[in-house]
Write a structure and sequence with these properties.
The complex is a heterodimer. By secondary structure, chain A is an all-alpha fold. Chain A folds into 2 domains: about 230 residues, no CATH class; about 230 residues, no CATH class. In chain A, about 80% of the residues lie in helices and about 0% in strands. Chain A contains 20 helices and no strands. The radius of gyration of chain A is 26 Å and the shape is globular. Chain A starts with a helix and ends in a 5-residue tail after the last helix. The mean pLDDT of chain A is about 85. By secondary structure, chain B is an alpha/beta fold. Chain B has a domain of about 150 residues: Rossmann fold (3-Layer(aba) Sandwich). Chain B contains 10 helices and 10 strands. In chain B, strands 6-7-8-3-9-10 form a 6-stranded mixed sheet, sandwiched between helices. In chain B, a hairpin with a 2-residue loop joins β1 and β2. In chain B, α3 packs parallel to α5. The two termini of chain B are about 35 Å apart. The chains are: A mainly alpha, B alpha/beta.
């Protein structure tokens, strides 16, 4: 057996052993009596998701094949752009996204870079196949051959993965001016795409402020943007895959598309290998250049000697507040460090929330508030991960602190909640400038949404502490988790909207004072926030490190 | 066996290692010592090929660490401080993995022998995630011993080990050196390693303060009694034992190690 084959066999055996262990561990976690309610909820939502999916497939008309190819290719290109924007802004990942153990024992083993990249791709194939199965199921009624669709989608996703690795390695090799240039360029492109989507949404909505009409308009606008000429040029690498997926029968042309698709995938993997090597070389070259500059004295260097030590940076001084103060001050450091990313992450929800005022002059603050609620619940928690989710690797330290579960919970979730409230206030202020709401409406929106912000982060953290995961964990489980969370949150939002409408109807029927209406809403909002915070504190108190800490990979 | 010439390593604008040079022959055991942040781990990682040096030449068995990476990896093992392991693999599976990656023929007998030696046999089917800090360290050492490397780089290997574990490890280091293996051992437990080291490399602020045999270090600082004292003398620091042996030094200085 050749060396490469032997290593490949060893690595595949290892991967299988790890998959078996993880499956056993996941099964025991799901069957644990401690998580009975959470598991039951997850199963219920999953069942709902599957039933909904089947209903959508059965009732949907087949899409136009030309449009389907444009959307598929365009969606892949937009995803590719997203990977580049993310790579430009986030801290460089480890080489090829390898874990610390993989970096030490596999990347340092006497194996070639080709084999290492192959190992990395082999590792993502199973989750890609399962993800593709879910997507292919939705598109099955649009094409002649489910098999060709499935194969084309798997190859497309692998090319997308290769692009993600290329973006990460390229970004990691840059420093200083290069990184700033990449960030500027990618942000400008992202803004251009967003502006297109928003402008098309406004045009498609034709003055309607109904949430369903706006969602429909947004969907149409996204499709149109994906199908536009510029995005289509960017989606050129996925062209053979989309043609292969929609081919009506097997022919030489179909076979040609298939072969070309495989060729693109292989070329993408080769590009990863080449860029990985180039990235290492470029990084060393930049470092060497800087060393020369330091030796010449044109650039200042720091060493660990006391003579060149930098001035001491202090934490923000806050009162102790049973331990909340120091935790908040520590969270603030993270906010300052990632302020650019946070600002960009909240810019999109702000634009979405103000969209009703742009689409219709008749829209008022309540329409903005509805979108703000959606943004607060669905978009703010993923954008502001400066709470328990960031500290999963430091649980031991947090658990050892002399702080009560309630104070710990408040210390962890207060700052992201306050940032979200500040974001709400900015949007509400802008909305007030564009419309003229009554003071009661303003009080209702501010009072209700601020409590809702605290509720959103409390619920997010309670769920996280019940089913924890690592910061950059990927795979099928994470995808299913994200979909279930989205579905569950959507359901909760619908329930809250229903309760709010019922309350408003009751107040108007019984001709209650507007103060009771506003007061009731604000009290209800802060009441559920308080319950959610108490729940999160309980989840933190029950968090058993040995059982609940997600393991590193 | 190991030749390092003018090694520099830059992290952003921080010069972690500045002009480190030394060489070791087969069978040498070099104690790499220095205060925290001296550049010991960076030097080891550069030698192990885990990070690329900014400048300088690093040779292992005559092979360049950056140019002949794969050949160097076959000859060299690196065990970091608190080694990362695969949480989803058992102790036995870790050894199987290393045997497969390094092409160790009939590794079962050797694996069993190593596990016996480091008291890991009862844990052969235990997941790495369930191991204590010391057990993880032992497993990483077993993995690195499995393919009989010519060069061993051990970063703080004694941390977390129990007394029998420390004794066993030091004995195994001596044994491997006797068989021609070159070993670099980084540790703050100077009293523990002084009897096995043939050489000492003292680093401070990224630079070499001293490199040579342990005898030469003592000759250079004849006023010192132990390796620890010699280390303090080499790094311009005062140790407890030295101050007590020098009557003119005020007692207040005995309270802690203070810079001169």
């Amino acid at each position: 057996m050749t060396n490469a084959l032997r290593v490949a066999k060893t690595l595949s055996t290892m991967s299988m052993q790890m998959v078996r262990t993880r499956a056993r561990r996941s099964a025991s976690r799901f069957l644990s009596p401690r998580r009975f309610l959470a598991t039951l909820g997850a199963i219920l939502f999953f069942a709902l998701y599957v039933v909904n999916g089947i209903l959508v497939i059965l009732t949907r008309k087949p899409a136009d094949l030309t449009e389907l190819t444009l959307w598929l290719g365009g969606a892949m290109a937009v995803y590719g752009l997203f990977h580049f924007v993310r790579a430009a802004w986030q801290e460089p990942e480890s080489r090829l996204g390898l874990s610390q153990a993989e970096s030490l024992w596999i990347a340092r083993a006497p194996i070639s870079n080709r084999l290492l990249v192959g190992y990395r791709f082999a590792g993502i194939v199973p989750s890609t196949v399962i993800k593709t199965l879910l997507i292919a199921t939705i598109l099955i009624c649009d094409v002649q051959s489910p098999l060709r669709l499935f194969v084309a989608l798997v190859i497309s996703m692998l090319v997308l993965e290769a692009l993600r690795m290329i973006a990460d390695r390229w970004s990691a090799s840059l420093s200083g001016d290069g990184r700033i240039a990449l960030r500027t360029a990618m942000t400008a492109i992202a803004i251009a795409v967003l502006v297109q989507v928003i402008a098309r949404t406004v045009a498609s909505a034709s003055g309607s402020v109904h949430p369903l009409a706006l969602v429909n308009a947004f969907s149409i606008a996204s499709g149109e943007t994906a199908a536009c000429e510029t995005i289509q040029w960017l989606s050129l690498p996925w062209w053979p895959m989309t043609q292969f997926a929609i081919a009506s029968s097997w022919s030489f042309t179909t076979l040609g598309y298939g072969v070309l698709s495989v060729f693109v995938a292989v070329a993408a993997i080769v590009a990863v290998i080449v860029l990985d090597r180039w990235s290492s070389w470029h990084h060393e070259w930049v470092e060497g250049d800087r060393l020369i500059a330091i030796r010449r004295g044109t650039v200042m260097s720091h060493s660990n000697s006391p003579r060149t030590a930098r001035p001491r940076q202090s934490l923000w001084r806050l009162p102790k507040w049973t331990g909340i103060g120091p935790l908040l001050a520590r969270q603030w450091i993270g906010v300052v460090r990632y302020r650019g990313t946070i600002f960009i992450s909240l810019a999109l929800p702000a634009a979405l929330s103000l969209a009703p005022l742009m689409t219709s002059p008749e829209a008022g603050l309540l329409h903005v508030a509805a979108w703000l609620a959606v943004s607060t619940f669905l978009l703010a928690p993923p954008a502001l991960r400066i709470d328990f989710r960031r500290d999963i690797d430091r649980v031991w330290l947090l658990k050892s602190l002399p702080i009560t579960p309630l104070a710990m919970t408040m210390g962890q979730i207060l700052l992201p909640s306050l940032i979200t409230i500040a974001f709400q206030l900015v949007v509400i202020a802008l909305a007030c400038m564009l419309s003229s709401p009554s003071s009661a409406t303003i009080a209702l929106v501010i009072g209700g949404l601020s409590g809702f912000a605290l509720f959103s982060f409390a619920i997010e953290n309670a769920l996280f502490l019940t089913f924890p995961h690592r910061p950059k964990q990927e795979g099928l489980a994470m995808m299913v988790r994200a979909k279930l969370m989205f579905l569950g949150k959507g359901l909760l939002l619908a329930i809250f909207a229903g309760v709010f409408i019922a309350w408003v109807s009751m107040c108007s029927t019984l001709q209650w004072n507007v103060l009771i209406l506003v007061g009731g809403c604000v009290a209800a909002s802060w009441g559920i926030a308080a319950i959610a915070v108490a729940m999160t504190a309980r989840c933190w108190r029950c968090f058993e490190m040995r059982l609940d800490s997600p393991l590193g990979h | 066996m190991i030749q390092v010439h003018d090694l520099h390593k830059l992290y952003d604008s921080t010069l972690a290692v500045a002009g480190v040079s030394f060489s070791l022959k087969p069978g040498d055991i070099c104690g790499l010592v220095g205060p925290n942040g001296a550049g010991k781990t960076t030097t080891m990682r550069s030698l192990a090929g885990l990070i690329a040096p900014t400048s300088g030449e690093l040779l292992v068995d005559g092979l360049c660490v950056t140019q002949d990476a794969i050949e160097v990896r076959k000859r060299l093992a690196y065990v970091p401080d608190d080694p990362p392991l695969f949480d989803d693999l058992t102790v036995g599976q870790h050894l199987d993995l290393i045997a497969g990656l390094y092409d160790v023929r009939d590794h079962q007998a050797k694996s069993n022998q190593l596990m016996d030696c480091f008291a890991l046999t009862p844990k052969v089917n235990a997941l790495a995630s369930s191991l204590s800090r010391g057990m993880r360290q032992k497993l990483a050492i077993c993995c690195s011993y499995l393919y009989d490397p010519k060069v061993l780089l051990l970063d703080e290997p004694l941390t977390g080990l129990d007394p029998p574990g420390i004794r066993g490890l030091l004995e195994s280091i001596r044994e491997r050196a006797a068989n021609g293996c070159t070993i670099i051992l980084s540790s703050h437990l100077l009293a523990m390693i002084e009897n096995i080291c043939t050489h000492v490399l003292v680093m401070q602020a990224g630079q070499v303060e001293f490199f040579g045999t342990t005898e030469r270090l003592r000759q250079r600082h004849p006023e010192t009694i132990t390796l620890e004292d010699a280390y303090f003398a080499a790094t311009n620091q005062i140790s407890f034992s030295m101050t007590t042996s020098l009557p003119h030094v005020p007692l207040m200085m005995n309270a802690a190690v203070v810079p001169q």
